[in-house]
Design brief:
The complex is a heterotrimer of chains A (174), B (248) and C (354).
Chain A lengths: L1 E8 L4 H14 L3 E6 L9 E9 L13 E4 L2 H7 L8 E5 L13 E5 L1 H7 L6 H13 L4 H11 L7 H12 L2
Parallel strand pairs in A: 1-4, 4-5, 5-6
Antiparallel strand pairs in A: 1-3, 2-3
Chain B lengths: L23 H15 L4 E5 L7 H4 L3 E4 L5 H11 L4 E7 H7 L1 H10 L4 E6 L2 E2 L5 E2 L18 H4 L5 H5 L7 E6 L3 H19 L5 E6 L3 H4 L3 H15 L3 E5 H5 L1
Parallel strand pairs in B: 1-2, 1-3, 3-4, 4-8, 7-8
Antiparallel strand pairs in B: 5-6, 7-9
Helix pairs in contact in B: 1-8, 4-5
Chain C lengths: L4 E4 H11 L4 E4 L7 H12 L3 E4 L3 H13 L4 E5 L1 H16 L4 E7 L15 H5 L10 E3 L4 H18 L2 E7 H5 L1 E4 L28 E2 L6 H21 L3 E4 L6 E4 L3 H15 L4 E6 L1 E3 L3 H9 L5 E6 L5 H9 L5 E5 L8 H12 L1
Parallel strand pairs in C: 2-3, 2-4, 4-5, 5-7, 6-7, 11-12, 11-14, 14-15
Antiparallel strand pairs in C: 1-8, 6-13, 10-12
Classes of the chains: A alpha/beta (174), B alpha/beta (248), C alpha/beta (354).
């Protein structure tokens, strides 16, 4: 069971990062829900989605205390940092978040996602870098399946698959 | 003995409820005759709310009774799912030009392949003579008892002129039924409006200037004269749009 | 069976409608249901169906009237303010006994309100909504899969009973993505048109009329009784609900739609802390599971009911009517587009219990 909040600016691929997790979990035969914030804030403001992954059916898809927070920008970290369960995980996009998380009861992973994406020759794929990091550290998803999932999601745009897989790998290597 | 007149097949035997001297009956006959000529396998009519609300009892085909003003939307729904049927809407001025203005404008703009018979007698008949969107300046009605005052009520709407500005419609003509010559002209126009549909040419509307002796407070003869002398001046007869000519 | 797909509620409903035989969709944009008309606009032509973006909700529902009256499996979707506009047409559709499906992805109100999830359209869905004495078969699905399953059979029910059917969702249900199994495409190509439909092929004595005007009081009274006889059959045959841990419950929480899932998590939390809570989830909101509520109310272990809703308290009235004074019925709700958490519900129950 993992309850994940993914948050950031619109345009950072926050909603699609949530979907990568949801698709991967579905392809592993797990129950999933992906609930976006919707409305005017989708157009350039903050965006977030709540993803629930479980072996049994998801009851409430609303996450008040996430097991995992993926914060892609500073306002998102500020908004959700205190809600993360004790013992949970926070993945911080340190390219845009320069502060350190002021909690010692959670596992924090700093990822310079924007720089790593550029390193992987795919500057738009910071979200895939983070996806790799999530799969490595979350313990709920299988790497091979996640790679296959990326292939399925981009099946209609095959030329993007290698660079997205590369971005995933640099994130997974952390 | 030679048969000189027959009731159109497209009309039922039910006597109409229209007042003496009302032109609705005539508009029904002209519409029915036009449909008879098509020998169509499928015909569906849409009745309005207003004096012609019982039109579904008079036209001898499958009929739907629409909510007030919504006949063009209902006709659109029917035509889109049964494109090979002849679909017509029969509407009065309150129905079409007031409460149903959005529906008629957009059906026309979409170029829906339907035929609309618009009976304009410049008054609300069924509800008892209230001001219509087509009531003329100075014309008396129960809700403008000193006559339509522009300062209070604004101007009457010229539907044929307005719709003819749209790109969607194929054919728009205004006719009147005050004498034999004009009745024949009206028949020709309605025939063409249905033939256009058979040929898939899109939206056709015929506006018929009609009488309402009861609510105008006139005899049937005076009403016909009123159409000729007054209404036809405010609402000039003629073809307002005809894309079949442009194509020819 | 097809592979599972991750679909938004709105998209899933649209695809399930098509697989259930829907071949005519008429709609107007309004948040948060826009994925339904957007999906229909490209999917309908693929299956030989009809899609029109109408000039208004009023027009959309009247296009449904026309197409449905001609025998097509026609539907529309909207959200709260748009459903208010459609109510005139829904009344006519009910009166003329035209089968159709209406999806309402409810947003908060009144007025322009907001675009966030709400359940404040319960009254206008289950009590008729427009003018006159009529009802609809109203479903309140709680997941994307249940949206699919209900939508897939909705037209069959609509044609069986010749009545409009409403699927009452909320903004969350429209936007949430979940894994669903889609059913196979139904084939109606060889099914003859309904025996009442105005397909335009009949003249004279055989001709058909789709109409809701009954000018003679006796005729109209008979028509009203005919409609209500159908509603009695609905109550007998179509009433659906789901129960969770009610058998030994002290407190019965009742909720429908997405809120019922939040409430289910609350029941688990309460059970973990020693409070014997249960959940009764109506799946059909009309017919309402009155009898089940009454039977639970008569059970000695049941101390009270709490109706949890995203409204100021609407379904709670039907719960009270069903419980009929046997046990207290309380209400806990959020509105304006705010959504309660499971913790909120558990806290309410714990505090009020003391």
């Amino acid at each position: 069971m993992d309850a994940i909040i993914v948050a950031g600016f619109g345009g950072q691929g926050v909603l699609s990062l949530g979907q990568f997790i949801a698709y991967s979990a579905m392809y592993e035969g797990m129950e999933v829900s992906w609930l976006p914030s919707y409305g005017p804030e989708m157009r350039g403001g903050t965006a977030n989605c709540s993803v629930c992954v479980d072996k049994s059916p998801i009851a409430s898809p609303i996450i008040s205390a996430p097991d995992t927070l993926i914060a892609m920008n500073m306002p998102s970290l500020t908004k959700f940092v205190d809600k993360v369960k004790s013992g949970g995980t926070i993945i911080v996009n340190s390219s845009l978040i320069t502060v350190k998380v002021d909690r010692d009861d959670v596992n924090v992973i700093y990822v310079d996602a924007n720089a790593l994406a550029i390193e992987a020759h795919n500057p738009k794929a910071a979200n895939l870098v983070i996806f790799g990091t999530y799969v490595k550290h979350c313990g709920t998803l299988n790497k091979e399946n996640a790679l296959e999932t990326i292939g399925k999601i981009f099946a209609k745009k095959p030329k993007f698959i290698p660079s997205n897989l590369a971005a995933f790998e640099v994130g997974y290597a952390l | 003995m030679a048969i000189v007149f027959e009731k159109p097949k497209m009309l039922t035997d039910k006597p109409t409820h229209y007042c003496p001297g009302c032109t609705h009956g005539l508009a029904h006959i002209l519409t029915a005759k036009a449909i008879d000529k098509l020998n169509a396998k499928k015909v569906i009519g849409v009745a309005p709310v207003g004096c012609a609300v019982f039109a579904y009892e008079y036209f001898n085909c499958d009929m739907q009774e629409a909510a007030h003003g919504r006949a063009p939307a209902v006709a659109t729904g029917i035509k889109r799912v049964i494109p090979d049927a002849i679909v017509f809407a029969y509407q009065g001025d309150g129905d079409l030009a007031s409460i149903g203005m959005a529906e008629i404008v957009h059906a026309a703009a979409r170029g829906e392949n339907i035929t609309v018979i618009f009976v304009n007698n410049a008054i609300y008949g069924m509800t008892g003579g209230q001001m219509a969107p087509t009531t003329m300046i100075g014309q008396k009605a129960t809700t403008c008892q000193s006559g339509r005052d522009v300062a209070l009520n604004g101007y009457p709407i010229h539907v044929s002129e307005m719709l003819s500005q749209l790109q969607g419609p194929c054919y728009i003509e205004r006719v009147a039924c005050y004498d034999v010559k004009h009745i024949k002209q009206a028949q020709k126009a309605i025939d063409k409006a249905f033939q256009n549909q058979v040929e898939g040419r899109g939206f056709s509307m015929i506006e018929i200037l009609a009488t309402c002796p009861t609510n105008w407070g006139m005899s049937p003869q005076d009403s016909l004269k009123y159409v000729e002398d007054v209404m036809c001046k405010v609402y000039p007869l003629g073809v307002y749009k005809d894309t079949t000519k442009e194509e020819a | 069976m097809e592979e599972k797909k991750l679909l938004k509620g709105n998209e899933a409903i649209a695809e399930a409608a098509i697989r259930g035989g829907c071949r005519a969709f008429f709609g107007y944009p309004i948040t948060p249901q826009n994925e339904i008309p957007e999906y229909m606009s490209f999917r309908m032509p693929e299956v030989g169906g009809v899609f029109i973006q109408s000039e208004s909700e009023v027009s959309a529902i009247n296009m449904v009237y026309g197409a449905g009256g001609a025998g097509a499996r026609a539907m529309t979707s909207s959200s709260s303010p748009g459903i208010s506009l459609k109510q005139e047409g829904i009344s006519y559709i009910a009166g003329a006994e035209i089968p159709c499906v209406i999806v309402n992805m409810v947003r908060s109100g009144p007025g322009l309100g907001g675009i966030q999830p709400a359940q404040c359209d319960y009254f206008q869905s289950v009590k008729g909504g427009g003018h006159g004495d009529y009802k609809m078969l109203v479903y309140g699905p709680n997941s994307v899969q249940e949206c699919v399953d209900i939508m897939y059979t909705a037209f069959d029910k609509a044609f069986e009973y010749r009545m409009p059917i409403m699927i009452l969702g909320d903004g969350m249900l429209g936007q949430i993505m979940e894994a669903v199994t889609l059913p196979p495409m139904k084939d109606f190509s060889n099914v003859p048109n309904a025996e009442w439909a105005t397909d335009g092929t009949r003249y004279g004595a055989d001709r058909r009329v789709v109409n809701s005007l009954y000018i003679q009081p006796d005729d109209l009274e008979a028509m009203n009784h005919k409609l209500f006889a159908k509603y009695d059959v609905l109550a007998e045959k179509e009433c659906r609900y789901e129960e969770y841990l009610c058998d030994d419950a002290d407190v019965i929480i009742t909720a429908y739609g997405t809120v019922a899932r939040i409430a289910k998590s609350a029941v688990d939390m309460l059970r973990a802390s020693g409070v014997k809570a249960g959940l009764l989830r109506p799946i059909t909101l009309f017919p309402f599971p009155c009898d089940r509520f009454a039977r639970l109310a008569a059970m000695p272990n049941v101390k009270k009911f709490v109706s949890v809703e995203l409204s100021m308290g609407q379904m709670v009235e039907d719960v009270r009517l069903s419980v009929n004074g046997m046990k207290p019925v309380e209400f806990y709700g959020r509105c304006g587009g705010n959504v309660m958490t499971s913790e909120d519900i558990a806290e309410y129950i714990t505090k009020e219990g003391k």
